[in-house]
Design goal:
Layout lengths: L7 H5 L36 H14 L2 E2 L2 H8 L8 E2 L15 E2 H14 L3 H13 L17 H13 L14 H8 L25 H11 L25 H15 L6 E2 L9 E2 H13 L3 H14 L1 H7 L1 H14 L11 H6 L6 E2 L7 E2 L5 E2 L2 H24 L1
C-alpha cells in the first residue's frame, strides 16, 4: 500500500515487514505516547497512526461497512490547517507549525480513506491541494515536502489523485507528470531486474530493482489506489522493451517482474537486514493487489493462497494495517475475507478499534455529562454484525467448495 515499505525506525523497535509508509525524518517513538480513543491498534502510533487508520477505514468501507464515527473523527482531527497530515499528532488540538513533520504518504492515504467514506469534501480538497503544492520538478513526490522523489510516495499520491477524480497525467510541475517520474524509475528489460521499478536512483544514478516499489509503481502506473480489482490482461506476459515506457507498459513490465518473483514460492522474501530467508508478508499482500490490477490473475491467486496459509500470525502480531492489507488483497482476487485460513479478517480488524456497522444502519449518538459526543450504542451492535457476517462468509465459502 506500500508506500508499504518498512521505516528504519520501525525496524529498530522490532517491527519487521510491517505495513508502514516510507522512511521519514520524523519524531522518535516514545513509550510515553498513549494510543488515543478512536485509533485502530494499540502499538505506538508515532510513525503510522494516520497510515494504519486510513488503511483500516478503507478496507472496512470496501467490504460494505460504515466505520464508527469515533474512528473517522480521529482521522479528520489529525489534519493540519494547510490540508496536510503528519504520521501522528499526539495533540491535535494544537495547531500545526514548522516543527510538525507532515508527509505525502500519510496525506495521500487519508485522502483515499476520507474520499471513499464520503462527506469530507472540504478536508479532501485541502489535502489534494497540499499534495499538488508538494510536487517535485521531476513530476514525482518524496516522503516529506522537498525530499527527493521516490516510486512509493509518488504512487500513493497518484492513488489519491485518481480516487478523487483528478487525472494524474495533468498534474505537472515544470512540465513533468508523475508518470514521467515512474518511467524514470522503470528498469529496462535488458538490464538486471528488468521490468521492475527502483525506489529511487542511488547516488550514481543507478537503478536497483525493488519489489516493494514495483508493487506500488504498478498500481500508480495503472492510476489505482489502495482498492483495486482484477484488470484487463496485459498485452504480453514478458517485459516489453521501450526507450520511454508508457504508463501501461510500466505497469505490465512491473507485473511481469512481480509474477516471476512469486512464481516458485508464492511469496516475496524480506530484504531487511537480519531477515534472511524470511517471507515478506506485507509486500506479498501488496503484490497480490498489483498483479490482480494488472490482469495477472493466476499469479495473484497463487500468492494470495500462500498468504491464506501463512499470514495470520504475522497479521496478529503486526496489527490493523496488516489485516487491512490482507482484506484489500482478498478483494482484489475476489476471495472471502470472512474465511482467511480459518480466520475472519473482518472480525480481527474490527476488534482492534471502534466497531463498524453494516452500511445503512444509523449510529445512535449519546453525550456524556461533559458534552462529549459518542456513537456508542451501535458500536457494540456493529461488532456483533461484523462477527456474524464473517462467520456467514466463512460458512458460505465452505458450502460452495
Amino acid at each position: 500500500m506500500n508506500v508499504r515499505r518498512n521505516a528504519a525506525a520501525l525496524a529498530a523497535i522490532g517491527v519487521l515487514a510491517a505495513a508502514a509508509p516510507a522512511v521519514a525524518a520524523g519524531p522518535s517513538p516514545s513509550p510515553e505516547v498513549s494510543v488515543p480513543a478512536g485509533l485502530y491498534g494499540k502499538s505506538d502510533p508515532t510513525y503510522d497512526g494516520v497510515w494504519r487508520q486510513s488503511l483500516s477505514l478503507t478496507a472496512l468501507h470496501t467490504l460494505g461497512y460504515r466505520p464508527a464515527a469515533g474512528a473517522v473523527d480521529w482521522l479528520t482531527g489529525q489534519q493540519c490547517a494547510n490540508g496536510a497530515f503528519a504520521a501522528f499528532r499526539a495533540d491535535p488540538a494544537k495547531d500545526c507549525d514548522a516543527k510538525t513533520t507532515v508527509d505525502t504518504n500519510s496525506t495521500a492515504a487519508a485522502v483515499q480513506a476520507l474520499h471513499a467514506l464520503g462527506g469530507h469534501d472540504a478536508a479532501v480538497t485541502k489535502a489534494v491541494g497540499w499534495l499538488k503544492s508538494a510536487q517535485n520538478a521531476d513530476g514525482g513526490w518524496g516522503y516529506n515536502p522537498g525530499s527527493p522523489s521516490d516510486a512509493n510516495s509518488t504512487s500513493v499520491v497518484i492513488g489519491a489523485l485518481a480516487a478523487t477524480g483528478t487525472d494524474p497525467a495533468h498534474v505537472e510541475k515544470s512540465g513533468r507528470s508523475p508518470y514521467d517520474a515512474l518511467a524514470g524509475w522503470s528498469i529496462p528489460c535488458d538490464q538486471d531486474g528488468g521490468g521492475a521499478l527502483a525506489y529511487q536512483p542511488d547516488k550514481k544514478g543507478k537503478l536497483a530493482a525493488n519489489a516493494d516499489a514495483t508493487a506500488a509503481g504498478v498500481l500508480g502506473a495503472l492510476g489505482k489506489g489502495f482498492v483495486a480489482e482484477a484488470g484487463k490482461a496485459p498485452a504480453q506476459d514478458a517485459c516489453a522493451k521501450s526507450d520511454r515506457p508508457t504508463p501501461a507498459q510500466i505497469a505490465d513490465n512491473g507485473g511481469a517482474y512481480l509474477s516471476a518473483a512469486v512464481a516458485s514460492s508464492g511469496h516475496l522474501t524480506s530484504t531487511l537486514p537480519g531477515a534472511e530467508d524470511q517471507p515478506d508478508y506485507g509486500n506479498t499482500a501488496d503484490t497480490v493487489v498489483a498483479l490482480a490490477a494488472d490482469g495477472r490473475t493466476e499469479p495473484a491467486k497463487k500468492a494470495y493462497a500462500w498468504l491464506e496459509k501463512n499470514a495470520s500470525p504475522w497479521a496478529a502480531q503486526t496489527g490493523p494495517a496488516a489485516y487491512a492489507q490482507l482484506i484489500l488483497a482478498a478483494h482484489a482476487v475476489g476471495a472471502q475475507p470472512g474465511d482467511f485460513g480459518g480466520t475472519s479478517l473482518v472480525t480481527s480488524l474490527a476488534a482492534l478499534g471502534p466497531a463498524p456497522v453494516v452500511a445503512g444502519h444509523t449510529e445512535k449518538r449519546t453525550k456524556d455529562a461533559d458534552g462529549t459526543s459518542h456513537a456508542g450504542v451501535w458500536w457494540s451492535v456493529g461488532i456483533c454484525l461484523v462477527a456474524g457476517i464473517g462467520f456467514l462468509l466463512s460458512t458460505r465459502k465452505k458450502q460452495q467448495s
